[in-house]
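Would you be willing to look carefully at the protein I have copied below?

:::
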Amino acid sequence: MADKSIYLASRSPRRRELLRQIGIAFEVILLREAPRYPADFDETPKAGETPDDYVLRIAREKALAAVGTMCARRLAVRPVLAADTTVVCDDAILGKPADAADAARMLGLLGGRMHRVLTAVAVAGGGDVEVRVAESRVWFRALAADEIRRYVATGEPVDKAGAYAVQGIGMFMIEKVFGSHTNVIGLPVCEVVSALKRLGAIRFLE
């Protein structure tokens, strides 16, 4: 299994659990002390930026910001893993909903059709940054208005890209997934391991 620890620049409990499941040792490095504090950089999509370019840029900026935090706090120097996930419907980026009404709006768009889930991973180490993106296609069944309302009321959509969790209650909406299942959860394990190995950050299963 992995014999070197890395920093994970993410608050996501889902990403942490996936790393634990495959035996990658890590410590969490937070870019800000609490979620209510301002973000370290603007995550607003740029004019003309494609969803693919957007997630790649954000993941890279998160990784570099975490490296800056590591240096500023004089922490042990280790590779940094960052990721960014977004849901794409009709080429529109659906990030985390602003509130319950926004979550209901997003789910209304996704019901009864296919959408894309993109997760970019970035690994910074040794002066280099390895960045790659995974794509999965997810089909939702048709959703009744009361189903959307009841699901939003559970609170699960609040901090999820696209306002749903494939590994949670939201699985009731999903008919099929083409591509990486862990990507839809928020961390494409295959891409993560490949990026970490390429930079020599881990010796996985050796």
Remarks:
- The domain at 6-198 is CATH 3.90.950.10 (Maf protein).
